[in-house]
Amino acid sequence: MSPSRRPEPLQARTLVRPYALVYLYRSRLRVHRVQELLAGLGVAIAVALVFAVLIANGSIAGSAGEVVHAVVGPANLELRARDPDGLDGQLLKRVEHLRGVEQAAPLLELTATIVGPHDRHATVELAGTEVSLAMLNGLAHTIPLAAFTPGAVGLSKTSAGELGIGPSNLDSNILLQLRGEAHHMKVAAVLGHEAAGALAQARVAVLPLNRLQQLAGLPERLTRILVKTEPGKKALVNDELKKLGQGRLTVGAADAEVAQLHQALGPSDQVSGFFAAISVLLGFLFAFNAMLLTVPERRQAIADLRLIGTKRAAIMQIVAFQALCLGLAASSIGLLAGYLLSLGVFHQSSSYLAEAFTLGTSTVVRLEPLLLSLLGGTLATFLASAVPLLDLRQGRALDAVYFEDGAPGNATGGRTQLWLGLGSIALVALSTVLFALSPSLGFVASGVLAMATVLVVPLVFAGVLRAGTALTERVQRLTVLQISLASLRAATLRSLALAATGAVAIFGSIALGGSRDDLLRGIAGFAHSYSVDADLWISNPGDNQATITFMSDHYSTRVARIPGVMSVNEYQGGFLALGNRRVWMIARPAGSNRHVLTSQVVEGSAADSVKRLGETGWIVLSKQIADEHHVGIGESLSLPTPMGDIPFRLAATTTNLAWSPGAIFIGSSDYRRYWSSTAPTALGVKLTPGADLERIRAEIAHLLGPTSGLEVSSSHTREQRIDHLTSEGLSRLGEISTLLIAAAMLAMASALGSSIWQRRASLAGLRLAGVRPSRLRRILLTEATLMLSAGCVTGAVAGIYGQIIIDSYLKHVTGFPVANLAGSLRPLEIIALVIVVVMAFVAIPGWWASRTSPTLALDE
Fold first, then answer.
1. Residues with Cβ < 8 Å from 331, sequence gap 6 or more?
2. Is the pTM of this model over 0.90?
3. Is 272:53 a contact under the CB 8 Å cutoff?
């Protein structure tokens, strides 16, 4: 039977046939298409926000995992150097002859900066390999031989794109800055996906192994040896490799970098995931509130169906079918919008990890976020659509909805408001208890607080109405306010849905946005304290963490002779594999850690720590590392060094210095002894008071010359770079906060638009009574202001408390440096922004509705 055919009477059947369900929903859409469209828009906005955040959260680790597996191929074990100068290349032959080894391949990986046309820079992972790795089906499996042309370098498509190199300028000259030396080279090939697979999306460059060893000044040295074992022989080979390494080399899984990257992304993902989870909850509430706007009309429709004898089961079937159609359609649109957001707005930069990891840049969409977002949007639609089904309960009159005060289906009694208010107080108390028990329960506490914010809105809204009534009793001429208050009382449920949407939006914006600001201020404080130990810094380009060694060439002595230079200190450091963490190691001369330790110490004394680091056998750790290894102040922790596992005593704990895996401070003398290296990673230059910084910087740059491959930067420039890079790595937090405000404003604007559209009949009645369109617009404006103000003030108060909870979570669970809560005008700014923008959005439907023909009232 055709869907357009009129169905048999509904009261004749317990359940409705599919074609009748379609017919009924098509009929509803013809009459209420604008209402359904606006409700669906609210659901789509929520789903888009959730899906975009979930995709972005998993893309960095997902794309990097693809890159790592493209490099190692079928290799399942590796022998990795702990020394900054790598391991002896002669070990490769010994590894190849171990029992159970099927194949072994050498790899030298170094971080370098490439300067391309028009002075465009890119920091890349420079990989040197040979044919044996191709045989292993790793890095060079499909890379063309042109990439190994002598005197030339092969670039991935991503690296070439950052340098502005394409088919039109493939033979461009580039400058390779590597370990303190600059080399002019040609681009041999640009490696796209067809040639390099996942590597095309990574910031990598490829050279023949012997050529890279020559350029880096590391003859016969490797960073790791990849091993493919015979079936069933992995454990045997692992033991043999450990014997060969003699405790001075690291033996582990060939793709261990993936686990380390997951750990490195852990704290920032915890932050983003925490923010995303709050956004999921808020998005769910957006969708739920958008659907609540349709409840009054749906209740009336259900009453009409009951009056003609329709069975309860059939009504439930109709409601469920319509909710499913709307939920799936709106959620599907939201998924598409969320994917586009993840490609653009939420495509987070991972440059802050580039010195330690080989990263991809592709967006990875997994099935779990898609299903979660789709089901969440549909579930919210179902729950809100189920509210009218409460009228089906036993003992309730069939047409009870028509005898409630105000507009049919909109009533909310004072008793209900009181119970909701008491529930809100209980939830605030529960949130406080959870927060006090453990900062790790911050998400749960914040979620409970968000729910409390929604529940208290009816009580606050009732207070706003009473205050407005008291004002109109004192000032009789406020007739517009009187009419607005009467209208709001008549449509309480609709008004509460709008106010609750505003409350949820403001809560999320203030709590998440304020915490993000506190986090960024904490990072800025660290960047300053880390950089001010010297007035000028000499290092490899872009090496803000001072982890890449270079040939000193007696630079310290020569720079110290420049007039105005008071002292030159050599700094060292690198990355240390400690368990599944790639820890940032900082080795500075005695006394030069004073500023950074004073600002970042969590447990212990900063002054004592500075003193201990000038001695031997002491370290300072990030608190998260100390807690993970259950090490207290004064206790010992063994670190894996090129000399074996060496115990060090803990002097103090710090934040993670904005490097999510954590950091270790060690004395310069201990570092040189156990890492057998005197090569610096940075030179810190202190100037005499009153010296001309720019003049001295220029003289140092001239002294280094164009072939050094080093750069000279001021402490302020270094501070700005660190601040920018680490903040960039947390940029998604700002995007979540900003998009949350935008999504809230769109949700509220659509909700208000839907509300105004539903009121055309009542507005037509006012027109029929002689009210002018301009006066109707003032009435609508007053109503919207009252609704939004009630919700926004509620959300602002709860948001400030939520910010305190989230700050504590960030500080104690993730280890990031977080500044203390500071007073600001942000809550007021957000409230004003939301109200102004939403009012601007609804100006058009408001103007249109105010000109509704009076005859519509007669038709109704």
1. 43, 44, 47, 373, 374, 376, 377, 378, 381
2. no
3. yes
